[in-house]
Amino acid sequence: MKYKVSEMFESIQGEGSFSGTLVNFVRFSGCNMRCSFCDTEFNKFTLVSKERMYNQIKDYLSKIIVFTGGEPMLQLNQELVDYFVNKGYSVHIETNGSIDIFLRGIDHIVVSPKDPMKWLQKTGSDLKILIGPDDENMPLDEIVSDTTFKNYFLQPISGPRYDDALQNCIQLIMYNPTWKLSVQLHKIINVK
Question: Is the pLDDT of residue 41 over 80?
Answer without folding.
Answer: no
